[in-house]
From TrEMBL:
Organism: Pseudonocardia benzenivorans
Protein name (database record): SDR family NAD(P)-dependent oxidoreductase
Keywords: Oxidoreductase
Family: Belongs to the short-chain dehydrogenases/reductases (SDR) family.
GO molecular function annotation: oxidoreductase activity
Pfam name, any one: adh_short_C2
Length: 249
């Protein structure tokens, strides 16, 4: 079923929307009545995802989430084109090559801090400004089980994802009175553009630690749909683990 702009009752912005998980979340949330603003560094990838959302009002915007002004501009697109912002999905993320701490460069740290942490800070801040005026909303951050458990060779990734989990909790506490819910999803490993960068032997060892094996982006999308919708109205500050049992032991 398709929606026209006049029938839009929910506006969702997804960052990292050209990637494996962002695209799956966009497709899952593209229900009748929902309009989407899809953001990524990759314009061709964005067009591919938008093209798969037949009948859903969609805008695409090339955005570097490390740049606060670009994130503000994307939120402004949601407001100007569709009349508001109800759900903000801060999903863009990067991982640097595997390395122990003494081999990491300043650039490895800078990139992951800029995208994984400051990207979420920028998205959360921009969304809060709009949602406060509107009387509420739902912010969903993509963290990782790497933010809850220690992965060797991935210190910046683990540290930035742990920071996202804690940022989520602080924002939840600060804005609950204004009916802005802030939660994160902590995925285990699934195949995507990001996991393709991890050495295959490391991936095999990682898969052995997932009792249900690796997941797919679609296995995660339901958690985002839950947090985006009214069924989660009493859920805030949560870090929802969806990991095929990885973090259970
Ligand atoms: N793949 C996994 O196993 C896994 C596990 C846990 C968490 N995650 C998290 O899931 C999220 C999505 O990752 P994915 O697995 O779909 O990877 P992906 O590489 O397929 O997608 C990430 C997307 O983010 C975009 N991006 C990167 N830097 C950006 C920037 N500065 N501004 C805007 N967009 C940018 C990329 O272009 C890409 O489209 C990330 O936050 C990642 O850390 C992934």
């Amino acid at each position: 079923m398709s929606s026209s702009i006049s029938e839009v009752t929910r506006v969702v912005l997804v960052t990292g929307a050209a990637g494996g998980l962002g695209a799956a979340v966009a497709r899952r949330l593209a229900e009748p009545g929902t309009a989407l603003v899809l953001c990524d560094l990759d314009p061709a990838g964005l067009e591919t995802v938008a093209g798969s959302l037949d009948g859903t009002p969609v805008r695409t915007q090339v955005v570097d989430v490390g740049d606060a002004a670009q994130v503000d501009a994307a939120v402004a697109t949601a407001v100007e084109e569709f009349g508001g912002l109800h759900v903000m999905v801060n999903n863009a993320g990067v991982i640097a090559p595997n390395a122990r701490l003494h081999n990491l460069t300043a650039a490895d740290w800078d990139l992951q801090l800029r995208v994984n942490l400051m990207g979420v800070v920028h998205g959360t801040t921009a969304a809060i400004r709009v949602m406060r005026k509107a009387g509420g909303g739902s912010i969903i951050n993509t963290a990782s089980v790497a933010g809850l458990t220690a992965w060797a060779y991935a210190a910046p990734y683990c540290a930035t994802k742990a920071a996202v989990v804690h940022l989520t909790k602080v924002a939840a506490v600060e804005y609950a009175k204004e009916r802005i819910r802030v939660n994160c999803v902590c995925p285990g490993t699934f195949e995507s553009g990001m996991s393709a960068k991890i050495p295959r032997e490391a991936m095999a060892a990682m898969e052995a630690k997932h009792p249900l094996g690796f997941g797919t982006p679609e296995d995660l999308a339901g958690a985002f749909a839950y947090l985006a919708g009214d069924e989660s109205r009493w859920t805030t500050g949560a870090a929802i683990v969806v990991d095929g049992g990885y973090a259970a032991p």
